[in-house]
Amino acid sequence: MLRRNVESRDAQTRQMQDAVSNVEKHFGELCQVFAGYVRKKARLRDKADLLVNEINAYASTETPNLKHGLKNFAEEFAKLQDYRQAEVERLEAKVVEPLKTYGTIVKMKRAETELQRATMDATRTSRHLEETIDNFEKQKIKDIKNIFSEFITIEMLFHGKALEVYTAAYQNMQKIDEEEDLEIFRSSLYPPDYSTRLDIVRANSKSPLQRSLSAKCISGTAQIPTSRIRKDQQDDDEEDDDELEVTEEEN
Amino acid sequence: MLRRNVESRDAQTRQMQDAVSNVEKHFGELCQVFAGYVRKKARLRDKADLLVNEINAYASTETPNLKHGLKNFAEEFAKLQDYRQAEVERLEAKVVEPLKTYGTIVKMKRAETELQRATMDATRTSRHLEETIDNFEKQKIKDIKNIFSEFITIEMLFHGKALEVYTAAYQNMQKIDEEEDLEIFRSSLYPPDYSTRLDIVRANSKSPLQRSLSAKCISGTAQIPTSRIRKDQQDDDEEDDDELEVTEEEN
Q: How far, in Å, CA of B213 to CA of A176, rounded?
């Protein structure tokens, strides 16, 4: 009877250790990939911020209606980036952090089973171990459901806001009065004297954010390397990204 | 009268050149930033593809309901990445390419005005130049409205699909039967003999995609550098990204 209990205890300890190791491995990997996903979202937001600046810079050089329309779009698009920032922060707090926290929980559980095994009598340990395994499993299922539900909710909130913002932005873009702008532009061709006309033109062609960026896209050599990576490919797409940035700098 | 025409012609030529230079500069910069934005979207899609793999790998080690729920989510999430891929391709074709094409148009327009100026008589040139400027301006306003409208439409299409996919995914996630899984897990604690039980445990703890990834997130040292860049910062966020990847590799 004691021998059977000892065998049972050893088997349960191994089962607990296997379960704990599995969670440790997969939650760690999930945490890492989710963190990478959130990081890429943050990079996308950074690029969108640059786009806002660039649209504003261009808008400043344009005729009134187009200028107003573009500045309006830049403002809406900037608002969307604030929502994206909130999305990034929520994903960190509600998805990445809880997965990271599991590392600590797992370490504690492992110590707990080791301790139980070493210090308690066989019958009590066996019952206690079953309880520990049971609680661990229960909590894990609950947590994984919760983490994925949080992920989905946070993403939905952002996509919903995006639809809202873009709907308004589209209508504003359509409302830009091309004809009126063309009239304004035409009238600048026949001002009272040439110097006035040239002043208008010169004032319009100065952007408030004069930058050193050369117009690489116009040279026709800019690459947009967006081809899909193979499904089995690992994180070395980062390296790929670097190379491409270097290529662009050299163009 | 001829002198006035020559002056008028010169002023118009300069105005045309200023307008063309302004478009060349800003469309080039917009093209570049839009291309960067699309590239980051493609990187996000790559990370999401890795996430699909990782979720499937973890799901394979789990009890039936959780396994089914996670695999279902991975499938829906993969579908969303196909929409993201379509979004990336559309943005390239309808936003980045048209902006890039402007480089060629601008070069032709510049040659056109130079040629007109050099070869035609003053009166004809002046009228012709006005027409050229007018057409250029008209086309430009039309094109910029069109490019931005395309951008908004493509983005909306994706966000709409995302909402649709996540709505279904959320409902499926909520439907995962925790209690049944727990019962299945519990029954694996009392199989006819220990070897059977251990077989079940061992079979469950083997993932189909055994990887060499260490669980860095669990160590608590993983960094999620998502802090917003300064609005005036340029493209060197790429460098930042590389450094962080290196840091992670070293952890």
A: 53
Q: Which two tokens stand for residue A188?
A: 């600048």
Interface contact A141-B176, CB threshold 8 A? yes
Distance of CA A236 to the CA centre of its chain: 18
Helices B64-91 and B122-174: crossing angle, nearest 10°? 180
The average pLDDT across B166-192 equals 87
Kindly give, in sequence order, each residue whose CB lies less than 8 Å from that of residue B125, ignoring residues fewer than 6 positions away: B9, B116, B117
On whether the CB atoms of residues A68 and A55 are closer than 8 A, the answer is no
- Say whether pLDDT at B221 is over 70: no
Q: Measured over all CA atoms, what is the biggest interatomic distance in chain B, rounded to whole angstroms?
A: 111
Q: How far is CA B146 from CA A51, A53, B95, in A?
A: 17, 20, 9
Of B11, B21, B233, the CB nearest to A197: B11
0.90 cut: is pTM over it? no
Joined tokens for residue A187: 């009238």
| Cα gap B169→A110, rounded to integer Å | 33
Interchain CB contact of A4 with B (< 8 Å) = no
DSSP state of A63: -
Distance CA A176, CA A165 (A): 17
Which chain A residues are closer than 8 Å to B89 by Cβ?
A: 226
Residues of B in contact with A99 (CB under 8 A): 217
pLDDT in tens, B122-150: 666 677 777 888 888 899 999 999 999 99
Question: Given a cut of 70, is residue A139 above it in pLDDT?
Answer: yes
Contact A55, A69 (CB under 8 A): no
pLDDT value at residue B69: 97
> What is the complex's ipTM, to 2 decimals?
0.78
The string of pLDDT tens digits covering residues B153-164 is: 999 999 999 999
Confidence of residue B205 (pLDDT cuts 50, 70, 90): very low
Chain A contact for B237, CB < 8 A?
Answer: yes
B191 sits in which H/E element = none
Nearest to B66 among A144, A155, A170 (CB): A144
